Every structure is written in C-alpha cells, then in structure tokens.
Amino acid sequence: MEICKNCGYSLEQPGTACPNCGYYPKPPKTRKSLPDWALILFGFLTAIASTLILPILGPLILTAVYYSIKDKQEMYARGMGYGLLTVVVLILGGIALCFAMVFSGSFKF
Ligand SMILES: [Zn+2]
After folding, report:
1. Lower CB count within 10 Å: N or C terminus of the chain?
2. Cα(34) to centroid(ligand 1), Å
3. What is the pLDDT of residues 6-25, one digit of tens each?
4. Phi, psi at 97, each rounded to 5°
C-alpha cells in the first residue's frame, strides 16, 4: 500500500494517479538523480579517495562493492572500475619506477 505524496491518501494501486487529488507519482525508472558522466566521475573519485585513505584495504573493499552494485548502479560501478584500474596502473608504474631507480642507483655505486 502506497500513500499519495501530495495529499496522503492511501493508494490501492501503486504507480497510478491518486483518486483523491489526481497526483501522479513518477515511476522510479525515469527518475534520474545524476547524469551518467557524473556517476562515473563520482565512482572514479570514490576509488581514488578510498585508495588514499586505505591503501590496500580500500581497493579490495571497492572491488567487492563493485561486483555487488554493478547491476543496480551500472554507471557508478563503471566509474569505480576506471578508478581501480587507474590505481593499479599507478601502483605498477610506481613499482617499475622504484626498480628503475634502484637499478640506476646500483650502477653508480
Ligand atoms: Zn493525492
């Protein structure tokens, strides 16, 4: 049983116009809180931020969250996926840079 958001009348059939005041509740599917690019950006930033806060645990938790929400929050999960990939690339790049510095340093000594 749903209640009319406009007048508080009890709706016998959810998703239909209110018989009391004529208010028509918008179906949830057409209601978009944010555009796709914003959700992707937000997911991306979530992945980056969680990595900065929890360097190892953050990405692991996010990977689990990614798989649990990717069906419901497709765009947000996609942004998180991009963020996690960026983090992995940066970490691998950092490790490669460390190795390069160690090797170039060992040549000098
Ligand atoms: Zn109503």
Report:
1. C
2. 27
3. 898 888 777 778 888 988 87
4. -65, -40
